[in-house]
Amino acid sequence: MKHPLQTVAWGEFRKEWGNDVINSKTGLIIFSKIPYTKYKIGTLIRGNNLTKENVQEIARLGKQNNAIFIKLEPFVLMDKKIVKQYKKYGLIKGKSLFTPTSFWIDLRKSEEELLKSFSSKTRYNIRLAQRHGVKVEVDNSDKAFEEYLKLTFETVKRQGFYAHTEKYHRLMWKYLGPSQKSKVKSQIAHLLVAKYNGEIISTWILFAHNEFLYYPYGASTDKYKGVMANNLMMWEAIKFGKKLKLKTFDLWGREEGKGFTKFKEGYNPKVVEFIGSWDLMINKPLYYMYIFVDKLRWMLLKFKAKLA
Fold first, then answer.
1. Cβ distance 277 to 73 under 8 Å?
2. Has residue 169 got a pLDDT over 90?
3. Integer angstrom CA distances of residue 301 from 37, 70, 121, 276, 306
4. What predicted TM-score, i.e. pTM, was given to this entire model?
5. Is 20 exposed, middle or buried (0-12, 13-18, 19+ CB in 10 A)?
6. 8 A C-beta contact, residue 270 and residue 103
7. Cα 288 to Cα 281: distance, rounded to the nearest angstrom
8. Whole-Å CA distances, 153 to 103, 142, 195, 217, 257
């Protein structure tokens, strides 16, 4: 499979997390139990393009696993013809888990070409971080990972957004990181750290898989904003991807108007649009009931995050 969320390692991680995982022709279907009920929700994220036969297979697996619906987000770029096909298969547009658009950086370009393409402010901030003595390195040690967790929840508290639990992050690292506690033959997750005066002030987890580098998780302290560590982190992440001979750096999402989106834009990435999120209803009445309750749940989670 093309995407790290469709690897054996990801499937084993989600099994230990408590999900039921089934491998279909289109990709891994992750089933999550709805608390206090006999029902489940299925997700098939970043799998292959869908055919009528694929959808029929997924529907059959959904019924066998007592799913209300299965959310499908194929690793397929936007194509109006494909959209029409999906609608013919009985799929309906659903709430996105991934943002519909993302940023891609072409890692096949030379370092000189890439630097030249960045905005002048981004180039200035990279040099500023270097002048301040910020050092960036790959550090997959237990100590660095503990700093990653510490900074993650410091960032969550500061910015007031919802994040996965500590247990989730630890299991993800167990199966995708250097310990390789799975059948996967190569490490997918790598930890990049930025140090200032010997202190880790920023941490990023990168996924490397099938010619792509991905940036799914990142966290930093607010103490040393002026040294521009994250600008240097991005540049070093790009160079890391080139060192691994990967072709594309996917910056894992794009949301217009958000501060971190503006940060990413400084690296002159290409905007790509995916085919989007599609729901395959298995139980229509319960599907619409679930959608209503889920909206209330997310409102509550966001409210709690702001109070934390």
1. yes
2. yes
3. 21, 23, 36, 24, 9
4. 0.91
5. middle
6. yes
7. 9
8. 25, 17, 18, 12, 23
pLDDT at residue 180, as a whole number: 62
Q: Are strands 270-273 and 199-209 parallel, antiparallel or unpaired?
A: unpaired
Residue 157: predicted pLDDT: 80
Q: How far apart are CA 103 and CA 269, in angstroms?
A: 5
Domains of the chain by residue range: 4-98+274-307, 101-273
> Shortest CA distance to 72 belongs to which of 100, 96, 43?
43
pLDDT at 184 over 60: no
The two domains 4-98+274-307 and 101-273 share their CATH topology (first three levels equal): yes
> CA torsion angle for 167, 172, 173, 174 (degrees, to 10)?
80
Residue 162 pLDDT greater than 80, yes or no: no
Mean pLDDT calculated for residue range 149-161 = 84
Give the integer Cα–Cα distance in Å for 137 and 233.
9
Which pLDDT score is estimated for 204? Answer: 98
Q: Which amino acid is at 307?
A: L
Q: Give the pLDDT confidence score for residue 307 in this predicted structure.
A: 63
Residue 148 has, within 13 A of its CA and on its CB side, a CA count of 24
Superfamily of domain 4-98+274-307: Gcn5-related N-acetyltransferase (GNAT) (3.40.630.30)
Rg of the chain over Cα atoms, rounded to whole angstroms, equals 20
Query: Which DSSP state fits 227?
Result: G
Find the mean pLDDT for residues 208-234.
96
Can you name the CATH fold of 101-273? Aminopeptidase (3.40.630)
